[in-house]
Design brief:
By secondary structure, this protein is mostly beta strands. It is built from 1 helix and 11 strands. The chain has a single domain, classed as Immunoglobulin-like (Sandwich), CATH 2.60.40.
């Protein structure tokens, strides 16, 4: 039950973060979380399906997707979507998906963002080491092109509940 509460809390935090990313009302955001499950199809083959999370436990994979749309009559320029990665959630490497967006990460609580190969963390002894997905605190997507009026798209990532 504790894990379910954590997932609900985590999803709530992400929804709050996403809803305030564009406070001017031009771009609306909607977040969804789906649990990744392996099922046997009618041909007896394994396949991946995504379902509404009911009882997520450590080790389960959750797919987070943010749907965005331009509610304005003008193109939305330089659209950036920033989302925190909550405690107990680990980004799955190479799992990002999205519509014409670049993805960067933060390891300092969202103060700065960069590509994974340029992220480093300071260890307890003061030395630097390359950041791992476990160190990520935020994900940021920047749309490559302006978002036309009425334009829509999605960005997202897979994660593991620790």
């Amino acid at each position: 039950m504790k894990q379910i509460t954590q997932v609900i809390t985590i999803l709530g935090l992400l929804l709050i973060a996403a809803s305030f990313a564009f406070a001017d009302g031009k771009v609306s955001l909607r977040m969804e979380a789906m649990e990744e499950v392996e099922v046997i199809n009618q041909d007896g083959e394994k396949e991946i399906q995504y379902i509404a999370p009911e009882s997520v436990v450590p080790g389960d994979v959750v797919l987070y997707t943010i749907h965005y749309s331009n509610q304005s009559e003008k193109p939305a320029e330089s659209v950036v979507i920033t989302n925190p990665i909550p405690e107990h959630i680990q980004f799955v490497e190479e799992s990002n998906h999205g519509s014409d967006a670049t993805m960067r990460f933060s390891v300092d609580g969202g103060k700065s963002f960069n590509t994974p190969d340029k992220l480093f963390v300071t260890t307890e002894d003061g030395s630097q080491r390359p950041a791992t997905t476990r160190d990520y605190t935020h994900i940021q997507w920047q749309l490559i092109h302006p978002l036309d009026p009425g334009g829509k798209g999605v960005v997202g990532y897979r994660s593991i509940l620790e």
